[in-house]
Amino acid sequence: MFQITIANSKTEFCQEAAERIIKQILQKPDSVIGLSTGRTTGDIHRVLATLLKERNVDYSKVTFVAVDEVVGVDRDYSGACYKMIRTELLDSLGVNDDHFLIFPTRSENWDDTFAIFTKQVAEKGGIDLLTLGLGENGHLGFNQPGTPFEKRNGLGDMYPELEERIRKETNMAATDFLGGATLGIVDIMHARQILLVANGKNKAEVVKRILTGPICTACPASILQLHPACEYLLDSESAALYSTQKL
After folding, report:
1. Most exposed: 30, 113, 167, 177, by fewest CB within 10 Å?
2. Cβ contacts of 184 within 8 Å, gap of 6 or more
């Protein structure tokens, strides 16, 4: 049976997400916390930073792990996941890169890079709580529709709208490689707990699909139905079609 929480407001939505992360840190001070970037998670990160400081929570032993990273840009580009997570959360907490694992934006040997990253996460004990944003087409990280469920950490495709925006913002030529490094579906499913967050009416259709539709690679997030400890944190708009169907 799914564990579904529906928040009544954006404030409550962000608060509930932050509370899940804080609870994990209090239970296990050396937790490994997975973070996603995007419109949904940015405000969650800012609320989390405020609450951690207000409550004097000791997060000094926590390791933060990013779900994905844009490949082909500079790390200080505003749309790079490294930059976003640092700006939204880690810089205000004073967390250094020793406690932040993220794929690089460039590499001379991606096979070695992914092997090293996988080993680093394993040496920390694996991801205890992974927060995941939900793409409108059901993607998780850069695991786009059609990605095999057997995929491990590696390169993934970028959806056209995002690629167009990044190329415009960075003045990248159409011939320059632009993509994404991402946790694979297998690696996502290995997280001990998952918190899938989605808000807004534009997510209503995909929320209904991942909760009631078949488990298939056409909608990568549908695989979360098989995770033994996944909570879906939604707002009333994103849950509208699912709630209507369940009545």
Report:
1. 177
2. 143, 151, 152, 153, 154
Cα→Cα distances 171→72, 82, 126, 206, Å: 12, 20, 37, 32
**Dist. CA 243–CA 226, nearest whole Å:** 21
91: Cβ contacts below 8 Å, ≥ 6 apart: none
Tens-digit pLDDT profile for residues 23-35: 999 999 999 999 9
- List, for residues 116-125, the tens digit of each pLDDT value: 999 999 999 9
What gap in Å lies between CA 208 and CA 210, rounded to an integer? 6
Task: Name the strand (E) or helix (H) holding 163.
Answer: helix 160-170
For residue 159, give every residue at least 6 positions away whose Cβ sits within 8 Å of its Cβ, in sequence order, or none: 135, 137, 139, 144
Please give the full DSSP string across 183-212, using - where no structure is assigned. Answer: --HHHHHTSSEEEEEE-SGGGHHHHHHHHH
- Return d(Cα 237, Cα 244) in angstroms, integer: 11
User: By C-alpha distance, which of 214, 63, 188, 192 is closest to 134?
Assistant: 188
Q: Does residue 205 carry a pLDDT above 70?
A: yes
Written as one letter, the residue type at 167 is R
